[in-house]
Every structure is written in structure tokens, then in C-alpha cells.
Amino acid sequence: MRILLLEDEPGLGRSVQEHLTMAGYQVAWARSVADATERLAGGNPDLLLLDLRLPDGSGLDLLRAMRGRGDRRPVIILTARDQITDRIAGLNAGADDYLVKPFDLAELVARTQAVARRSFGEQTLVCDDGAVSLDFPGRLALRDGQPVALTAREWALLELLARRPGSVVPREHIEETVGPTAESGGNALEVYISRIRRKLGHEVIETLRGIGYRLRP
Ligand code: CA
Known about the structure:
Elements: E1 2-6, H1 10-22, E2 26-30, H2 33-41, E3 47-51, E4 53-54, E5 57-58, H3 59-68, E6 75-80, H4 84-92, E7 97-101, H5 105-121, E8 124-127, E9 132-135, E10 140-143, E11 146-148, H6 152-162, E12 169-170, H7 171-178, H8 188-200, E13 205-208, E14 212-215
Parallel strand pairs: 1-2, 1-3, 3-6, 6-7
Antiparallel strand pairs: 4-5, 8-9, 9-10, 10-11, 12-14, 13-14
The structure holds calcium ion.
């Protein structure tokens, strides 16, 4: 999972990045709202750790803008102890959780895992107008009520699309995350998509030519 950290305090930013990297996450560190906005538009981060007071603006405005355009990626805000109103405003703006500085790095990891599980893992997703349901933690796919066997890589691909149901996931992002395969050269992704479609129905995944793929809600 890729995490985008927006934090302008160098010491804190460095220790958060180091700690989450050790915990197995890929962490990109942005030090300004402008930098974070650019990285979010690039499409890669799965989860955002958000400081609220940045030199070039407010993390809260960034969060509101994200939610305003339908970006549901999970956000954990990082606030100072005296910023209770910021914390409330953050939750109202659609943050998934918050941590009060100075926080324990082990707690940060635990909260990040909990938010990620809540957002991506512990969900059953119904798509294609109810014809297909995907139970991610149970690894159970049903098509018209009948169980369908999917491989680990097919699940990984679906999981990636399911993080943003109804939103387009760029193909570069899918290839980076799911990984290349030797068996079919440059068309590996198309091969996997077509296998999933054969199993779950063509309508489940929509192709946006030249852009990416979208899970049909
Ligand atoms: Ca700050």
C-alpha cells in the first residue's frame, strides 16, 4: 500500500516515513499542499496522512477539495494538541481518523492499518447492479449467487479497483501495484482483465481506452 505523507516538520516527517517504511508501506513525503495535490492527482497514493497547517496552505482545504471531487481515499489527520477545532473540522470534512502530536509511532502504524482495513479490507462490494458480489476478507466471489474461483492475482487486481469503485484507476498504477508477468509480455494486464471478465461477467470492469479501468458499481 502506498501512503502519501503531507508534513512540513522535517524531524517528524522523517521519523514517520522511516517507521512506516519499516512496517512495509511505501511512503512518499510531500512538504507542501502544492506538492501533495500534484501527487494525489498522479493517482498513486492509497492513503493520506495529513498535517493541517502547512507553509503554503491548509490541509483541511486539501481534504475538502478531495472529498468535493469524489476522492474517497482514506485520510488520517495529524494535529497538534491545542487544535481541537481543527480536529473536529477534519472529521467533518471526511477524515477517517486523527492522531494528536506528539504521537507514538507504533500507534500511527496501528491506526494506519485499522483505517486501511476498514476502507479496503473488511468490505463486501456489490457490483454490476448486484449480479456480482465480492467479499474481500473472505476471498469469496459470487456471480448470480454462485461461487466463482479467482486466483490471488485476480483478487489483487480487483482489490485495487475496489478501493475506488466507480473511479478510474490508471493502468500504470495497476501495473505497478499488481506487477508484470512474464507469460504475455506487454499485454499481461489485458489478459488478467479478460480472465476476470470471463469469470464474473464482461460488465464488471469497464475499460477507458488509453486511461485505465473502472469497477462498475
Ligand atoms: Ca505543520
